[in-house]
Each structure stands twice: as C-alpha cells, then as structure tokens.
Amino acid sequence: MEIIKTPIEGLLIIEPTVFKDDRGYFFESYNEQRFKELGIVDDFVQDNQSCSQKGVVRGLHFQKPPYAQAKLVRVLRGACLDFAVDIRKGSPTYGKYVSVLLTAENFRQFYLPAGFAHGFAALEDDTVFAYKCSNFYNKASEGCIMFNDKDLNIDWQVGNPITSEKDMQGEAFAMFDSPFEF
Hints:
Layout: E1 2-5, E2 12-15, E3 19-21, E4 24-26, H1 32-37, E5 46-52, E6 57-63, E7 71-77, E8 79-86, E9 88-89, E10 97-103, E11 109-112, E12 116-122, E13 127-133, E14 142-144, H2 165-168, E15 180-181
C-alpha cells in the first residue's frame, strides 16, 4: 500500500497493493491495523454507496461537529473526479481544494479527515461510489456549499452538471461561517 500526500495537510491518496492474475485481482480495501500504522486513526462506523450517471455532480457536503465525519472514498464501477475543499478556519489552505481521479481500474482511495467539504463528478454512466464514514449521518448537522461557487472556482470537468435541488441551494462560500478549526 502506498500513501500519497497531497498539497493540503491531512488529505491522502491511498494506492492499495493489487494482486492480479488470470483469475482477476485481489486487494485489501481496508485494514484497520495497517491504516492506523499509516496515521489514519478514525473508527469508521457507516458505509455508504451511490450510483450516478455521467455528468452528475454531488456536493459539496459535510457534517458539522459533533457529528463531523472523516471519509474514505473509492469507486467500485466507473470513474469520478473527487473533490475535497478545506473548510478549517485558520488553515493555510482554507478555501483550497484537491481533486483526485478515482476509477474502478486505478483502485485509488481518497482519505478526507473531518473539516473538509466533499463532492464528486461522475465521468461515466453507472458510476458506483463507496465511502466509509467515521460518524453516523445526522440530518440536523448536514451542511452544503454550492458546488458551482464562484470563489472556489472548481472545474468539475462536466458540461451541464446534473445535480439535486438540495445541492443547488448550498451556501455561498463567501457567506460560510465554518464550524471547523485548524
């Protein structure tokens, strides 16, 4: 397993060791002991999965403390461009983001600690996206920043994004008062 640090402290790309032969492949997608050795100490308590068609944009989502969530995300089928925006007040990278191409073929995973808004754009039809969360979903603590916020200026790399009404009503980043501290 290889860990790749990103330009934003805390965000990690994980490339598992994949064993391939004429039967197919095998890899460990999660091993609590190994992840803790690598510094990922979150206890993951909930797994989620979604399926999206090409051009769907989901995000930018987060949960406020005390229900904040770290996430470990990957693609099981298809491909997506995944985004994490630093929303930790006092962070030198506040308002900056990292994007990672996640595909069923590259097996990459993306680790986001609490304090990041998360979203992704499906690049293929029937993209199946899976994520582990370190806290249970709590509707009252959910937050959303507009995916197309002009200050964040994210290039989702999809023309005419398909998104939910809820995501269209996300908060403007300039008006956002983050509950997270660096």
